[in-house]
Amino acid sequence: MKYKLSKVLSIFLFISYGAHVGAAEIFWTDWLGTDTDPSSGFVGNGTISTGSSVINVTYTNANGIAFYQTSGGIDYWQNARSGRNPATSPYTSTAVDNIPTGTDIIALTNSGNQTLVFSETIANPVFSYVSLNGNGYAFNQDFDILSVGGVDGNSNGYWGGGTSFKSVVDVGNGVREYRLLGTGEPHGTLQFKGAFDSVTWRSLNAEYWNGFTVGI
After folding, report:
1. What is the CA radius of gyration of the chain?
2. Phi and psi for 182 in degrees, rounded to 5?
3. Rounded CA gap, 154 and 127, in Å?
4. DSSP-based three-state secondary structure for 14
5. Under DSSP, is residue 26 helix (H, G, I), strand (E, B) or coil?
6. Model-level pTM?
7. Short-list 52, 55, 94, 50, CA closest to 196
8. DSSP string of 125-187?
9. Which backbone phi and psi does 28 adopt, to 5 degrees?
10. Are 189 and 152 spatial neighbours (Cβ–Cβ below 8 Å)?
11. Quick check: 162 and 150 in contact, CB under 8 A?
12. Which long-range contacts (CB under 8 A, 24 or more apart) does 17-23 make?
């Protein structure tokens, strides 16, 4: 769902308690077109359609990416290369009802900074990731890990199973990084905490490849 800033406080209360009652339907980003960065970097654009409105999403990575899949191709969101089953998916949980839509994915390979920008403030977006082995993401926004492939009865992800955990690091001057780390072949979903219109993170290492998408 999408939220106006004036409703954020009441929404925090709704999500905090509602997640324990039943999973929510997630509106996932429909990634569109091709790279719009004329340089060696990458800019991808997508939309999140809620049924009543559309939110524009822009992803920017000055270091470039591995590939950008916007239509067709391999379904990396399936369970252990065995099709989709929301009951055991690495990406669903008591808070997330549905697997990322279609085959859309942004696949990363280089270390360095990147940013997602939303056309308006949103509350508690979710972020699903594929094959985060040998790497980690250091976000500027706090998050909770909702589900991981191969853990708590979940199926492994497309490339296998692993563990995920959060590490909070003080990088100085009152700034904290919220790091998503793991072992093996982590596939899963996290949820950011708070309302904002952008999120920035660092890929901690270069590795071919790990991927993501985002929803609300």
Report:
1. 16
2. -175, -175
3. 17
4. helix
5. coil
6. 0.90
7. 55
8. -EEEEE--TT--EEESS-EEEEEETTSTTPPPBTTB-EEEEEEEEEEETTEEEEEEEEEES--
9. -90, 155
10. no
11. yes
12. 19/94, 19/95, 20/94, 22/94, 22/97, 23/92, 23/93, 23/94, 23/95, 23/96, 23/97
Query: Which of 153, 144, 143 lies closest to 199 in space, CA to CA?
Result: 143
Q: Tell me the C-alpha distance between 72 and 74, whole Å.
A: 7
Q: Which of 99, 81, 82 is nearest to 90 (CA)?
A: 99
2, two tokens: 């999408």
What is the DSSP secondary-structure string of 55-104? Answer: EEEEEEETT--SEEE-SSS--TTSSTTS---TTT-TT--SSB-SPPSTT-
Burial of 83 (C-beta count, 10 Å sphere; 0-12/13-18/19+): exposed
Sequence-distant (≥ 6) Cβ neighbours of residue 50 within 8 angstroms: 1, 2, 27, 216
Q: Which tokens go with 122?
A: 């949103």
Question: Each residue's pLDDT tens digit in the chain (216 positions)?
Answer: 444 443 333 333 333 333 334 799 999 999 999 999 999 999 999 999 998 999 999 999 999 999 999 999 999 999 999 999 999 999 999 999 999 999 999 999 999 999 999 999 999 999 999 999 989 999 999 999 999 999 999 999 999 999 999 999 999 999 999 999 999 999 999 999 999 999 999 999 999 999 999 999
